[in-house]
Specification:
single chain; alpha+beta; 35% helix; 5-stranded mixed beta sheet; 8% strand
Amino acid sequence: MATQHLSPAPPSPPRSAPYPKASPGYGKRAVPGQRPPAADDFTFLPERERYIAGYVDTLPDGAAMGIKSLAKCQPLYGQMAVGSALRALAVAGHLRQVRCAVGDGDGIRWVTRTFWSRTARDNEWWTAFLTAEETTHCAPQPPVAPVAPVGPPPWVPAEPTATDTPGTPAPAPALPQQRTDAPQGPSPAYLALAELGRTDPRLVLSAADCAALEELAAQWFARGADAHHLTRALTAGLPEAVDSPVGFVRRRLVDKLPPYLPAPAAQAAPARHLMIECADCRTPGPPEVFRDGLCGPCLRSTHGPATPTPDEPPNPGRDIQAHVQHLRAQLRAR
């Protein structure tokens, strides 16, 4: 019997490492309105930036965009080269790294996101996009209290009575009348007056006394006072004996009535919930003061005084291709 020679099975190709996922709320975010991927994407970029851009473009939303993560998952470039490439891609208009406030109340936290665009965008487009992003996604939304559905009362047919005779139509059932003025609990002013006796026995007031003084106490609340302020003002420095608590409290409510306080001045600018990070020094700031993903000092040190500063009016007719060519020349000069 011939011996059968078995050749070893070919080794399976190594499996590529999975994309590292960022923490919830962080990572890559692809901007809307992009064209489908094409073979000529990023052809105008230098080789290193073209490679990093192609790799970032294939990452799904939520993938980690840190320099260490990107350098670890591709074999050609280290951390310094990846950091320089990301900076160049921000200048070319492909990405913006921002800090976004999420949550509400005491649960607000700042997360870092990288917005990516396969198509190079100019500064005006990025400013408009990030402004809309802050309004729709990053600004904390006030909680909405659930509203219980209100429907008409169920109709119950009337029970036939002994006086009903066959052939005689039964009277229409009487519908319950809806109450328009639901009973309300005691006002904060009434409750504050009723609690005076528990704070100091010399100022015990009856229910009739609280009702008679309620309007005067309500004026304190209308001027910004609360129950603690009212109680402290009425009980401070009491004499040893108070013959008429209701007269004594009435006198103090009138004599110590606080003044009207002006409304607090409006803030010069609303609280920001999204700030862009400089692609070079990582300094955060509002999107409208950045150009090419750089803050003012980094922009001047990179492009020189001939480049428009953030304080100058934007130029809608700026040629992005000419700007990228200038960037390529700078990268080759390194």
